[in-house]
From TrEMBL:
Assigned protein family: Belongs to the enoyl-CoA hydratase/isomerase family.
Cited Pfam families: ECH_1
Top-level taxonomic group: Bacteria
Protein name, entry field: Enoyl-CoA hydratase-related protein
InterPro entries recorded: ClpP/crotonase-like_dom_sf, Enoyl-CoA_hyd/isom_CS, Enoyl-CoA_hydra/iso
UniProt cross-references to PROSITE patterns, sorted A to Z: ENOYL_COA_HYDRATASE
Coiled-coil zones: none
């Protein structure tokens, strides 16, 4: 039985991170969490040509959660359970959260539990009309880990987070759009093309400005950024952006 994999492919300025677990709706195995972290921290971080990351699932599904078939092997021991959540799951999610490149999530089908957590780390989320969202782990008899619960709550909002965790609520894409979690809800057949177009649009813009904007949006306090906030003044892309606008031509970043 395959343990699944996280596939990293780079085409031009875009990195494609694909969750693959055939027969399991791309449920995350422990190996996949480690692979996801490595894909971001090693594969993506080492390629200076990249400007955007598109996160997606294989076969019309995003991610149905964790691979429950593995759970009896480690979840009933406190130390191994802590190791899993803090040093495997959270390490991968933290890698996504700290990625300097814009992250676009292409969400179709199941986006549950682990999938919802991964999507919550992305900067921009687009979903197909048939996508379903939730974290029904109350049916499995355990809570969401503290860091993961805070992440999801911050992304989907308090009302939905409480329903997902306390009542095992599962919601459609329109509900998540109304909550501000999704940028767009698209016909399922159009999602892949529109998500790619969005990533290409980001990749064509100023890359250092994108990195700076991510730091600004992630900062706990604006005060921590002020010392270096304007050090881009003489940068080539700053000069190019202004010059292109004044010359009425597209900028070349």
């Amino acid at each position: 039985m395959t343990a699944g994999l996280v596939r990293l492919e780079c085409e031009g300025a875009i990195a494609f991170v694909t969750l693959c677990h055939p027969g399991r709706l791309n449920a995350m195995s422990r190996a996949m969490w480690r692979q996801l972290r490595a894909a971001v921290e090693t594969g993506i971080a080492s390629d200076p040509a990249l400007r955007c990351v598109l996160v997606r699932g294989e076969g019309g599904q995003f991610c149905a959660g964790g691979d429950i078939s593995e759970y009896p092997g480690f979840r009933f021991d406190e130390a191994s359970l802590r190791e899993f959540h803090e040093n495997e799951v959270w390490a991968a999610l933290a890698a996504l959260r700290h990625c300097e490149l814009p992250l676009v999530a292409q969400i179709e089908g199941a986006c549950m539990g682990a999938g919802l957590e991964i999507a919550s780390c992305c900067d921009i989320r687009l979903a197909g009309e048939g996508a379903r969202f939730g974290a029904p782990i109350a049916r499995l008899g355990f809570p969401m880990a503290p860091r993961e619960a805070a992440l999801v709550r911050g992304a989907v909002g308090d009302v939905l987070a409480r329903d997902m965790l306390l009542a095992a609520g599962v919601h459609g894409a329109r509900r998540l759009y109304d909550a501000g979690f999704l940028l767009q809800v698209l016909p399922d057949a159009e999602l892949a093309a529109k998500a790619l177009a969005h990533a290409q649009r980001i990749a064509a813009l100023a890359p250092e400005a994108a990195r700076a904007n991510k730091r600004i949006l992630a900062a706990a306090s604006v005060e921590t950024l002020l010392a270096s906030a304007y050090d881009y003044a003489d940068s080539p892309e700053h000069r190019e952006g202004i010059a292109a606008f004044l010359a009425k031509r597209p900028p070349v970043f």
